Design the sequence.
């Protein structure tokens, strides 16, 4: 399973919605798929999946706006 597939699966689980699997460019916050509590849950879930931590201080709403952007952040973090 690719990094992107793993990220999408985590987001779908946290959002409790498969829309992110069908449309990885969906805006998570504008559509209400993720809220502020969901963001914290997502950071924790991604950290567990990929064995690293995202600090809430690192959060940039634009960089976390879509599943594809989050997947790019995770891929960058993994090197």
Sequence:
């Amino acid at each position: 399973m690719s990094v992107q597939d793993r990220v999408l699966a985590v987001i779908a689980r946290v959002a409790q919605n498969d829309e992110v699997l069908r449309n990885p460019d969906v805006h998570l916050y504008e559509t209400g798929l993720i809220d502020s509590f969901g963001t914290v849950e997502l950071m924790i879930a991604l950290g567990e999946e990929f064995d690293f931590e995202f600090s809430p201080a690192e959060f940039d709403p634009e960089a976390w706006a879509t599943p594809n952007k989050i997947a790019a952040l995770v891929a960058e973090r993994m090197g």
Observations:
- The mean pLDDT is 94.
- The two ends are 17 Å apart (CA to CA).
- Residues 36-50 form the longest helix (15 residues).
- Residues 63 and 73 are 8 Å apart (CA to CA).
